[in-house]
Amino acid sequence: VSISQDNARVTASLPTGESVEVLLYGATVISWKCKGKENLFLSSKAHLDGSKAVRGGIPLVFPVFGPPPANHATTGLPQHGFARISKWEYLGKSSSESSATPSNTGDASVKLDFGLSNTMLENIPSEWKKYQFGITYSVTLNKEDLETSLAIRNTGTTDWEFHTLFHTYLAVDNISQVSIKGLESSSYKDKTQGGKEVQGTSGPITIAGEVDRNYSLDPSKTIVVAEKNKPRYEISRDMLGDVVVWNPWESKAKSMADFGPEDGYKNMVCVEAGSVLAWNTLEAGDTWEGGQRIQVL
Ligand code: TA6
């Protein structure tokens, strides 16, 4: 395992060639190479200097998904909250052997830990500034998959509630040949139609225009993203009962200054594992843990 870090990012790679790159800004995974391919989409115009949430990779959504509601503790926060626009600290790594590899140099996987707490935040423009929290975010690079998991602790004396989600931009060769399996029978809230509830379809989901859907799907059910009917990614979830599927398509992509190239929407699909359709209450002193695993098939 080799790790390199500077004051802006941490990169880890396995001797077999897999690698992951994490910006300390937002603890945003901006690259994950596995099976010889880059598996995350990163806009060519993404801000990587901490001036704006990263357009691509795996931005972290916390404590609120979407535009914050009125008359709520999150009112006043930016869309998707402050986690993805805060400077996290790198807490270190741990690598582990696997029985499969006789070498005892821990070459089978590496776990990178990142931390954020309320004491690290500047000017929170909302009631949230009165809450205390500590988050440990673990990014684990395995030979065939990437795991991202959160341990969110309420270190204060009052309960608070939150949403959290991994806003994963998966790389695809051609969106017109993508089908998503596992969600088809579920109904969803269609954000392109004002959040209207739409019944599920029978066949796999395909994308031929702007898609912005919020599904609830039992975490025990995996999601497969296929290209030309060949499965490419399998997403497993723990404690994350909601899945957002998003592709901005042509005009929305053009309207985002940090989305490039203009036709980049053809090479990405966001499949976002989260807990966002209802508020999660975290009692003082409690810890919430959840995560996702994305396997390259
Ligand atoms: O992916 C779901 C979503 O909420 C979309 O509605 C769209 O707004 C997207 O997130 C991107 O949001 P952002 O704040 O990163 O531009």
UniProtKB/TrEMBL annotation:
Xref: Pfam families: Aldose_epim (PF01263)
A GO BP annotation: carbohydrate metabolic process
Enzyme kind, highest EC tier: isomerase
GO cellular component: cytoplasm
Keywords: Isomerase
Statement: the UniProt record of this protein carries the keyword Isomerase: yes
Catalytic activity: alpha-D-glucose 6-phosphate = beta-D-glucose 6-phosphate
E.C. number(s) listed in UniProt: 5.1.3.15
Active site: 167, 272
SUPFAM superfamilies xrefs: Galactose mutarotase-like (SSF74650)
Source organism superkingdom: Eukaryota
A molecular function GO annotation: glucose-6-phosphate 1-epimerase activity
Chain sites annotated for binding substrate: 55, 79, 84
Entry-linked InterPro entries: Aldose_1/G6P_1-epimerase, G6P_1-epimerase, Gal_mutarotase_sf_dom, GH-type_carb-bd
Annotated function: Catalyzes the interconversion between the alpha and beta anomers from at least three hexose 6-phosphate sugars (Glc6P, Gal6P, and Man6P).
Family (UniProt): Belongs to the glucose-6-phosphate 1-epimerase family.
Protein name according to UniProt: Glucose-6-phosphate 1-epimerase
Source lineage: Eukaryota, Fungi, Dikarya, Ascomycota, Pezizomycotina
